[in-house]
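Bumping my old thread because nobody answered last time. Still need a sequence for this structure:
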């Protein structure tokens, strides 16, 4: 009996050990483990949210050629045909009149609207590029969190199963003692109740593991198989809070995006103000008419005009839009201040959580060791009649709880580390040096920027 109880104790203590910080992998198979870098690379390539953000950026790229179209001529062609009936001194006359024309209009001056709208469009493209980087940060953070959650929940399943094995051994031991008159029916019932509770905990842990695996597949795009617990988080976190705050001001995509949105708001004001300035255009046309009159069979015409349009009063609409744009500029500047304060708060919070998680790991390890020794002592004391079965069950529950706390603290340490890296704006493929083909944000932009015509996108759609 003594050997069986000690064997079950050793199994309960050893199972579920999750040494994420030291890089020991979980027993999830003998094949080569999938590292977190590989998972992040898969998420970078496969995640639909990230791919949708890339498509959104490609759509925003089109704002630049739309603005540049103000430099280019407008060309149109027209044709008409009709039947004309005329009557003179009782004589009817019928003729068919038709014509074709080609019109060209070239803007020479539009109140600097083309220049300013192009600058605005380019600022919006840069802002959307920063937004894409922010989405990339969020996706990779979700991938890292789901990766660690699968490891944590796998460890908890192992831990709960070992706990159930230990408690089942306790049930057998309590029955043996009861049969020889050394125990009571109460001892047996208490052990059976704890074993039933352990079975429920195993089922709950399995449900949590399945949920974590489902989230992992949603974010990463593949099933979680044979994950390695080496998460290399210590190599990417900043060394100090001051360093983290300093880096975040220049690399955080949300700050960069807000800065470009301020620039876009400035150019928006200038573009609208351009509507109050004169517009100069050069218009030309050529046409050919068949039977324009009863005496003329055909006629050809060509014309070219320079036109100046000076706006005087537009009902106050343009002035109102200028005032509105100025208010939007003020809002954008205030929003930039809000984002800076928010980023600073996020960095400080993430740094605090990361440091607290490290302290929690040390405390949990000490508690596990103490609980382990306590359980061993209680088992020995029960053997000589100084402790009851309930004392052993309580000591085992305390050890399991401390093991759960240790696993949770180790998971929190890693997640908070990646949250810290994300808060300073360095949780991206380049900063993490992921082995993946980088998405080229300039490829589509350069392909469409100076495109004068064409309905197909650069990728052939």
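Sorry it took so long. Here it is:
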């Amino acid at each position: 009996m003594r050997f069986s109880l000690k064997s079950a104790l050793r199994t309960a203590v050893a199972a579920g050990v999750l040494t994420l910080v030291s890089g020991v992998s979980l027993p999830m198979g003998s094949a080569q483990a999938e590292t977190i870098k590989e998972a992040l690379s898969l998420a970078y390539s496969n995640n639909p949210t990230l791919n949708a953000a890339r498509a959104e950026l490609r759509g925003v790229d089109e704002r630049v050629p739309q603005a540049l179209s103000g430099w280019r001529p407008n060309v149109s062609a027209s044709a008409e045909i009709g039947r004309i009936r005329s009557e003179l001194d009782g004589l009817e006359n019928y003729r068919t009149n038709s014509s074709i024309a080609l019109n060209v209009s070239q803007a020479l001056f539009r109140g600097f609207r083309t220049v300013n709208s192009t600058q605005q469009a380019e600022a919006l493209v840069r802002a959307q590029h920063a937004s894409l980087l922010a989405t990339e940060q969020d996706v990779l953070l979700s991938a890292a969190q789901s990766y660690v959650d699968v490891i944590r929940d796998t460890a908890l399943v192992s831990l709960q199963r070992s706990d159930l094995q230990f408690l089942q051994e306790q049930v057998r031991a309590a029955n043996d003692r009861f049969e020889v008159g050394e125990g009571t029916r109460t001892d047996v019932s208490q052990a059976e109740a704890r074993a039933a509770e352990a079975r429920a905990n195993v089922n709950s842990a399995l449900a949590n593991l399945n949920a974590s695996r489902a989230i992992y597949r949603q974010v990463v795009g593949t099933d979680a198989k044979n994950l390695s617990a080496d998460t290399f988080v210590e190599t990417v976190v900043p060394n100090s809070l001051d360093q983290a705050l300093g880096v975040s001001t220049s690399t955080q995509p949300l700050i960069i995006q807000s800065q470009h949105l301020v620039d876009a708001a400035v150019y928006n004001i200038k573009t609208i103000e351009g509507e109050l300035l004169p517009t100069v255009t050069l218009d030309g046309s050529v046409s050919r008419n068949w039977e324009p009159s009863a005496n003329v069979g055909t006629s050809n015409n060509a014309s070219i005009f320079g036109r100046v349009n000076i706006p005087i009063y537009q009902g106050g609409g343009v002035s109102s839009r200028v005032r509105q744009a100025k208010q939007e500029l003020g809002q954008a500047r205030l929003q930039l201040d809000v984002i800076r304060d928010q980023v600073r708060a996020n960095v400080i919070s993430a740094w605090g959580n990361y440091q607290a998680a490290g302290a929690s790991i040390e405390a949990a390890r000490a508690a596990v060791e103490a609980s382990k020794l306590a359980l061993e002592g209680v088992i020995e004391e029960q053997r000589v009649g100084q402790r009851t079965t309930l004392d052993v069950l309580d000591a085992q529950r305390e050890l399991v709880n401390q093991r759960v706390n240790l696993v949770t603290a180790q998971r929190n340490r890693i997640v908070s580390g990646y949250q810290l890296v994300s808060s300073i704006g360095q949780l991206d493929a380049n900063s993490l040096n992921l082995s993946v083909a980088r998405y080229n944000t300039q490829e589509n932009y350069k392909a469409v920027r100076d495109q004068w015509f064409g309905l197909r996108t650069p990728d052939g759609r």
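DSSP finds twelve helices and four strands in the chain. Let me know if any region looks off to you.
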